[in-house]
Every structure is written in C-alpha cells, then in structure tokens.
Specification:
The structure holds three protein chains of three kinds. Chain A is α/β, with parallel strands linked by helices. In chain A, 21% of the residues lie in helices and 35% in strands. In chain A, strands 1, 2, 5, 6, 7, 8 and 20 form a seven-stranded mixed sheet that branches. In chain A, strands 10-18-12-13-14 form a five-stranded parallel sheet. Chain A has a five-stranded mixed sheet with strand order 23-21-28-25-26, with no helix packed on it. Helix content of chain B is 28%, strand content 24%. In chain B, the strands form five sheets. In chain B, strands 1, 2, 9, 10, 11, 12, 19 and 20 form an eight-stranded mixed sheet that branches. In chain B, strands 13, 15, 16, 17 and 18 form a five-stranded antiparallel sheet that branches. In chain B, helix 1 runs parallel beside helix 5 and helix 1 runs parallel beside helix 8. In chain B, 57% of the residues are buried. Chain C is elongated. Chains in contact: A-B, A-C, B-C. Chains A and B meet through helix 3, helix 4, strand 11 and strand 15 of A and strand 18, helix 11 and strand 23 of B. Strand 11 of chain A pairs antiparallel with strand 23 of chain B.
Chain lengths: 409, 474, 121
C-alpha cells in the first residue's frame, strides 16, 4: 500500500487548480489520479474559446486552458497518474485504483474529489419512442468530432439549450451538417446569452422555448422526432401542437449531473438536489478528510469558477492534513424562496463563508439574502438573476444552531 | 451461396440455440439461421430475466413441466455455461382474503406441477426477506431466481457453435420449400438444404409455420415495457417482488438484476407490430405508479433507461392464451419441428425445450452421438480477470481487455449492442456518455472497419456518418 | 427599433437600438459604455472568432484543434472554414503553432490550440 499526503481525483480544471494551489501552500506530497490517458478533463474537447477570462484575464480555448494548468503541474513536479481510475474508496481514505498496472491501493491523508460531471441521458429523461442509433448527448457528439474526427450525423435536431448543445449547434453547422432547431422545455434558455447569439442567431438556427421532443422515430437509425409545445408551468405537452422534424441525429443537452459513483461508494452523503456531495463551508463532505469541488460538487457555468472553488477546497485540505481545520458545528444552510440549491449545505459557524446558489427563475432587480433567524448574515443586490448563472454571495459567520436560509427577494 | 445441412434451426434466440446445442451432441450438421445481427436482440434479451418456479401455469401444461425442469437444472447450467444466475427466491405479495386464496391455490398448483420450495409467509417474515416491501403476507418461492439473459443466451449459442453448429446471423428466412424430402430454405442471398427444419423463430414463428404449410395458428404479441433503475437501488431489493398472479400474466413486478440494477415491469399491451420496441410516455408513469404499490423506492430520478419486449402468445379463437405448442405434423411435414407460442417461461424452459425437440428428431432420424462433446463455456472475462485494468466503461468497471475480447466473440458480432450485451459496457448510469466513442474506436481498430461501417445493432443502425476530415480538403 | 440582450457581462442589459432620420445609431438601455461599444460593433461590423480542427499527417491523433488569433468579420466565417477544411499539417504540432497565417487576408492567423505528437513506428 502506498501512503500519500493529498490525493486529487480528476485532472480537469478543478483537480489541476487544486494541485497547483496545494503546491503553492507548501504541500509536497500531492498525487493526481486521472482516468483518461491525458490530463485536462473535459477541456480537451471544448475547443471553442471563452475560457480563462477569470483566471487568466483573456479568452482562450479549452485545450489551451488545460495546457496552461498542465504546464504548471509539470513545472512544479506534481505527480499526475493518467489512465488511473479510482474504483473504490474504503474506510480511512484508502483508494483502490485501476490502471494498466492492475489494481493498486493508496492511502491518502486527504482526498479532493474533482472528477466532474456526466450528462443526463435519453434514459434519464425518458423520451418516449423507438430506440434507434443516432441519439447522442452533446458531450459525446463533441468528443466524436473534436477528439476523434468523426461526424455523428448530417441533419441534427438539438433538445435542450445547455451551453454544450448550443456550441455543438454551431460546430455541426460549421462542419457542414444541418441543424434544424433547438428545443428547450423551460421558458428560458439554459445556456449563456453569448452562446444564443453566437451559436444560434448567427446561423439562423431557431430556438423554441417551451417545446420538447415527445417521440423519437426510426427503427435502426433515427429518422425524425415529434416535437410538442409544453405548458410553461406543468411542462406537460399540449395536445394538437405536435410537429414532425426529420433528422438523422438527435443531440441532447438536457443537463449535467455531478458524477459521484465513487463518493457514494465511500459512504459520502449526496445532496438530492445538486447530485453532489453535501459539504460544509470548507468543501468537506460528510466523511472527514474527503473534500469535493468543481462540477463533481455542483455544476458550474465556467471552468474558471470550478478552478477557483477547487483552490478553496485545496486550502482547507491543506489545513486538514495538518490538523488545523476548524470543523465542528453543523448549522444547516437551506435554499429558501426563489433558490433552487445552495453550496455549502451546512456550516460550522466558525467564520465567514461563501454561498453559491442558483435562482429558480429569471428575475430583474432582486436581492439575495442570507439570513439566520432574525439576523441577516449577508446580502447582495443583482440587476438580473437567471437560473443558468450561478450566484455567489459572501456571508458573515453564523452562530448558534438555527438553520440558515438563503432566499431571493 | 448454397449450403447443405442435416438440420436447419430457424431462430437463434435462447430456444433455437438450446435446440441446436442439444442436437450438437450428435454428428448431425446443424445450421442456425438468425434474422438479427445477434442472438439476443428480441425476446431472449428483452424480458424480466427471472427464472420461474413453475407454479403459475396450468396443471399438465408443457409450460409447467418444462419450466419446472428448467428451474431445477439452472444451477448446473450456470456452472457449465458460465453465466450469472442467483437462486434468490421471490415473493408474491397479497393483502386481501381473496389474494390469500389465490396464492394458496397457486401453491397447490405449483406442487401439482412438480415445483418445490413454495410456502405462505406472514408479514413479519416477508419484511425480513424484503425490508421495504408493501404487503401483508406473501407466497415465497425459494427456488425462483434471476439470471443474465444476455450471457445465458449468448453462452448457449457460443457453446453450440463450439460444438460445430454453424451460425448465420442477419439471415432472415424468406421462403421454405420441400422437394424430394429435402427442405430448401432461402435466407438472405443464401440457400440452405436440410432434411430437418426446426421453427424456433419466436416472434416470427407463425410466419415460418405458415411457410412450412402448418397454418391456422393465431399468435398475438404481448408487449411489456420496463424501467431500469440505477444500481444504488439493487441492494434494497434482495429478490423479485410480484403481485398476485393469474395463470396468464404475472403482473408488474420489481426485479433485481444479477448486476445490481432493478427493473420495473412489464405491463402487457397487445400489439400487432412485432418489431416496435418504443416505450410510450404514459406507460413509463403507469409502471412507476403501479410498482410503487409493491415497493416504495421507485423514483423518476433513478431511471437510467427504459426498454420493452414482446411475447408471442398463441391464442384460441376466443383469444384465450394457450400452452407452448411443440409438434411434428406428420400430415403436413414429417421432418419439421414446429414451435408456436414460446413465450414466458421460455427463458427458464429453453434447455428442456431443446432436449424435447432433440428427442423428437432423434426418434425419427438416427444421428449418432459425437465422441467428444464439450458442454462447458468459460465465464465471461471480467474486471478481476484482466491483467491490464485500463477502464473503458467507468460506470460498470469494464476494461479495454474485456472489450477487445468481446469484439472477437465466436459468433462474429461486432455491433455496439453486441459488445454491450457481452461486457455490460454502456449499461451503466451514464448510458455510454463517456465510453461510446472509445468502444467505437476499438471496433474500428480490431475489425479494420471504417467509422461509417460500424453499426449499433441492425444493418441500418449506423452510428457515424464518417470522418469529419479526410485530408486532401474534404 | 430592435432589441438586444447585451452579452458583455452577466448583467444582460436589454439594449434598444434605433436609427435616427440622419442614419445615426441611437442606443438605449445599456448600463455602461462597453455595452454601447459592443452593440455598435455588433450592428455595424459584427466580428466573431471560430474554433475548428485541422487534419494532422503522421500524428498520434488524426486532428488538431485550432482557433483564430483574433476575431474576423462574421461574413468571413464560412470562407475561413473552407480554408481550415483544406489545410493540413504534419506532426508534431505544438499548441500555438500558426497553421494558416493571415487567413484570407483577415489579419487573423489560424493557430493550433493543442499539441499532437508524431506517431511512433
């Protein structure tokens, strides 16, 4: 068995940034485990630009953002084992790792889980109809094109207006495929405004809000979809609004889910709303010494934010291995009016903290308020809140044991 | 091409392959003609995967007899053929006096059928067996079980192949003639001559029966839709939970799979279309609601996939469901074995059906026993067996070695679905989101195929339109 | 009058644009000067940057990801894509390599955004 200081799971924007931060803090025994054959995570296939504005002050592509991090890792001599999948985390932070060398056991002083998220699949959203080939999540289509030089199809319909779906609409169009339309169940787009303009409007690809695919047609390869308008509140399809769109490819961009198979095995409590671990303000999960950050904790809008969060988690992990992390206390932080979820889900009460949240709906001129009983711990005014944009608000330390409520008012 | 065999088995599913495997003990030259690109694409791979006890069928029926036999031998078969089988038992839960009477009658019927290990249990014992179940009492069938329907069927087929049976996949039979006592079976571009024809075509059995001149059967399709739940649910369900059955329909049940998922279903909807496997939206909700009266853990967020299967049910003029029919009609064709209405419990009964058909043939044609026959099939290669444990599918822990091994399977199936059924890659919670392209690339490499020539399942199920860049400006 | 949602920052101001009788742009609803600049450019001379892939000869991967070094007029996207499609590069490729210099005289270079090693054999 190998003994290591801090083991980071995942060499994407979160994991790599965490490792660099740890090194900056003087932690010397760092090991990054990455299941793919090279580091960078999902950035490797995100060849569009728009990355790095926060971290590097300029707009670069995903692969460039990844190589900047990887170069830094290399320069600092931080060990990154690729082709290494963590398949189990047992008691006392003992990891089982599968690789070309077989299985290896590593005991970690602390673990930072930053393995990213997966895409919601057709099965998960239960689209009715036949089961032909040609139904891909946006990320799978993106990997086929950008990493493997393969075209998923020639005439596509896109369900869901998440950013990867919008970016794939443009990418497919630029590569000569026809994108008939993008359909979004909600009454607002899920992706960034910039992507609506530059990926859809520029190419005259229509976006239909309050619409969804209600049937998939095609015995072997998809031949078309039936699309229906839905009620904006109940999301139930409206009878009589069905329209048939022929296509040979259906791209799904219907949401990301933190991928927590490994943390579930470790006995970490998973938050039912975010799908990620339930963490305190130090990004520590319910299992002491296991931290989580980035899209594995909750889905971020920008890689830069995932990196920043992982740095914060790294700072706490560094304190933890020295026995200096001030934990204890268990004050619940709850999403209240107009808020769909919050991170952290509990705080110790030992100091100020930062809350990340998402709004339930698009609203103008709203205040996000963090309140414990009668006491307002923090607030911030926003000219616009949109569900597709994560909001961050700073809060003073809590006290006592009463629940903290985060609301949009 | 023109081929000459002693016996042509039409249908390579679990029943056709079991028949071929039994007959492969003899020196007969045997061909299996399968219209699909794999042996598990229809009913054999689309079911609850439950090994039935044999109590829910009419006394004296073939269904009862063959099911009881199949259940009894399943442990040995699983050892011999290396497929996962768990004799986990199952419960049929009831709440009313009428339920109690029905279940007691079911037990009596079961014992008359030769089944064993059947008993009534009270609520306390029921909740010990299945903690979260909703019900006041139950019938417990301790010999019921679950298996991997894909590996069960595939290993039977591969073992038949190992013993000399020729498999012709993607060979749909279009005509059968008989000249001078020899059958001439046309399938695809090939013609097969054979003394014997066995109709084990499952959903296509009526069509083949008509080709043989054995007409008049009425077969209806009974379609069952299913939900597949995430592996987090498996540990909460130690055995299948059924409602009180009738002799023709088992009801919507919740079933653990050998791999730790849970399936919910099937409903039973009559259908004329024997190849439409779409799952309608309203059925998904219906399944969830219906099964939630038995077991409380079914939530929409845990659904990772839906699927459906179709059972070919032989019915009489009044629409009443009949027994299995396994016959040689001397008046029409004395060298054709005709199987009609092989529905549930066909999965459990497949090997006994194979034996029965084999005996019927050997009574009439004296094929000799082979000197060497090997009834053994290795277990599939799994994570633990791989030396290089580089993962391709992280949800199900499937290594590249396993995928490569599966691509080179004896039947020559190299579709994505074929790899999926053999390895479990792509069956997990991400539903191929991360491994689809890796598996596609391995198929390209191992089979020397172009991207556009790779298929998901059937001949038109292309997965990629080709390369994005071909070089030289294309 | 035309309505736009500003994409400069997450405030997402609703900007209204109209033309005066003299043909000048009138901009309202923008919260800052950057919004005015953005919408003026967006209407008079919209520029875009694109990302794509270029075929690699003799590489351990078939393609390398590329982007433009600076934005180009929106109308040039498809002509530039044609150039990118026609281009090829021999391995090894290093991130930052210029694949096409001053593509179609737009002033923008097509540059590699990742590295591809030469195939070992």
């Amino acid at each position: 068995m190998e003994n290591r200081g801090i083991v980071i799971i995942g060499a994407g924007p979160a994991g790599l940034a965490a490792a660099i931060r740890l090194d900056e803090l003087g932690v010397r025994d760092i090991l990054i485990l990455e299941r793919e054959n090279s580091g960078g995570g999902i950035l490797r296939q995100c060849i569009h630009d728009g990355f790095g504005l926060e971290r590097y002050g300029e707009s670069i592509s995903g692969p460039e953002y990844a190589s900047r991090l990887l170069e830094e890792i290399g320069k600092r001599g931080i060990e990154c084992r690729t082709g290494s999948s963590v398949i189990d985390i047992g008691r006392d932070r003992v990891l089982t790792v599968a690789s070309a060398r077989g299985t290896e056991i590593i005991k970690a002083g602390a673990i930072i889980a930053a393995a990213g998220c997966r895409e919601r699949s057709r099965g998960a959203i239960m689209i009715p109809g036949e089961r032909p080939a040609g139904v891909y999540t946006a990320g799978t289509a993106q990997a086929y094109m950008n990493l493997y030089n393969r075209m998923p199809g020639r005439k596509a319909v896109i369900l869901g207006s998440g950013d990867i779906g919008l970016i794939m609409a443009r990418r497919l169009t630029l590569e000569g495929a026809e994108v008939s339309a993008v359909f979004e169940l909600q009454d607002h787009p899920n992706g960034l405004e910039r992507n609506i303009v530059q990926c859809l409007d520029d190419y005259s690809i229509p976006l239909y809000l309050n619409h969804t695919v209600t049937e998939i047609h095609g015995k072997e390869r998809i031949e078309g979809v039936t699309v229906s308008e839905v009620d904006s509140i109940t999301h139930k399809p409206k009878a009589g609004t069905e329209k048939y769109y022929p296509c040979d490819t259906l791209i799904l961009s219907v949401g990301l889910i933190p991928d927590n198979t490994i943390l579930e095995r470790a006995g970490v409590i998973i938050d039912p709303v975010t799908g990620g671990a339930s963490v305190d303000e130090h990004y520590m999960t319910s299992v002491p010494g296991i931290f989580s950050a980035g899209n594995m904790l909750h889905v971020h809008d920008l890689a830069d934010y995932a990196s920043a969060e992982a740095e914060a988690a790294a700072e706490n992990a560094a304190l933890y291995i020295e026995g200096k992390l001030d934990t204890g206390g268990n004050i619940r932080v709850a999403a209240a009016n107009g808020v769909s979820h919050v991170v952290p889900m509990r705080v110790s009460g030992n100091g100020p903290f930062t809350v990340s949240l998402r709004a339930c709906r698009r609203e103008r001129n709203r205040k996000v308020e963090i309140r414990q009983g009668e006491k307002v711990l923090g607030w911030h005014f926003f000219p616009l809140v949109i569900p597709s944009q994560m909001i961050t608000v700073h809060s003073d330390a809590a006290s006592g044991s009463e629940d903290i409520e985060v609301s949009i008012i | 091409m023109r081929y000459r065999f002693d016996i042509v088995v039409i249908g390579g599913g679990v029943v056709g392959s079991s028949i071929a495997r039994e007959l492969s003990r003899t020196n007969a030259a045997i061909a299996v003609l399968e219209k699909n690109s794999d042996v598990v694409d229809e009913t054999s791979g689309r079911n609850s995967a439950v090994v039935h006890g044999g109590f829910a069928y009419d006394r004296g029926s073939l269904k009862a007899k063959l099911c009881v036999e199949g259940n009894r031998m399943m442990g040995d078969l699983s050892e011999d053929l290396g497929f996962p089988f768990i004799r986990c038992g199952k419960v049929l839960v009831g709440n009313t006096d009428e339920d109690m009477r029905t279940l007691e009658n079911t037990i009596r019927q079961g014992y008359d059928n030769g089944a064993s290990g059947l008993s009534m249990i009270d609520g306390k014992r029921l909740h010990e067996l299945v903690p979260a179940v909703i019900g006041s009492f139950a019938m417990f069938s301790e010999n019921s079980g679950i298996l991997d329907p894909f590996l069960y069927t595939i290993h039977i087929a591969e073992n038949a192949h190992e013993n000399g049976v020729s498999y012709f996949l993607s060979h749909k039979v279009v005509s059968i003639e008989r000249r001078n006592g020899i059958h001439i079976v046309t399938a695809g571009d090939d013609v097969f001559e054979a003394e014997w024809v066995v109709n084990a075509a499952g959903l296509g059995a009526k069509t083949i029966s008509d080709m043989l001149g054995i007409t008049g059967y009425k077969v209806i399709g009974s379609k069952g839709n299913y939900l597949v739940l995430d592996k987090t649910l498996g540990p909460l369900l130690p055995m299948p939970v059924y409602p009180v059955p009738s002799n023709t329909y088992m009801g919507i049940h919740v079933t653990p799979t050998v791999d730790g998922n849970v399936t919910v279903g099937p409903d039973a909807v009559n259908t004329d279309d024997f190849s439409y496997y779409g799952v309608p939206g309203d059925r998904m909700e219906y399944l969830r609601e219906s099964a939630s009266t038995l077991w409380p853990h079914i939530s929409r967020k845990d659904v990772i996939r839906t699927f459906s299967g179709i059972l070919p049910k032989w019915v009489d003029d009044k629409g009443r469901i009949q027994d299995f029919r396994i016959e040689i009609r001397d008046d029409i064709d004395d060298r054709a074995v005709n199987l009609i209405g092989i529905e549930s419990p066909g999965l459990t009964a497949a090997v006994p059906i194979g034996r029965m058909v084999s005996e019927m043939i050997l009574e009439r044609t004296a094929f000799h026993s082979k000197d060497v026959w090997n009834g053994h099939h290795d277990k599939p290669m799994r994570f633990d067996d791989a030396a290089d444990k580089t993962l391709v599918c992280s949800c199900e822990n499937v290594t590249e070695e396993e995928i490569v091994r599966a691509i080179h399977n004896p039947l020559g199936v190299h579709t994505l679905s074929g790899i999926k059924y053999r390895t479990r890659a792509m069956m997990g919670r991400c539903q191929a989101g991360f491994c689809h392209m890796k598996i596609e690339k391995l198929i390209e490499r191992e089979c020397g195929l172009r991207a556009e020539d790779i298929r998901y399942m059937g001949p038109d199920s292309w997965i990629l339109s080709g390369k994005m860049r071909n070089g030289n400006g294309k | 009058m035309k309505r736009y949602t500003c994409i400069v920052c997450p405030k997402s101001c609703e900007i209204e644009v109209s033309w005066s009788s003299a043909g000048d742009l009138e901009v309202n609803g923008n919260g800052c000067q950057r919004g005015r600049e953005w919408i003026t450019n967006e209407i008079r001379d919209p520029k875009r940057t694109i990302a794509s892939s270029v075929i690699v000869e003799g590489g351990e991967r078939e393609i390398v990801s590329v982007r433009l070094s600076s934005p180009i007029p929106r109308a040039m996207i498809f002509p530039v894509m044609d150039e990118i499609r026609k281009a090829s590069v021999s391995a090894p490729v290093t991130a930052g390599d210029v694949i096409i210099e001053n593509v179609l005289s737009t002033g923008a270079d097509v540059i590699a955004t990742s590295s591809v090693l030469a195939k070992e054999d």
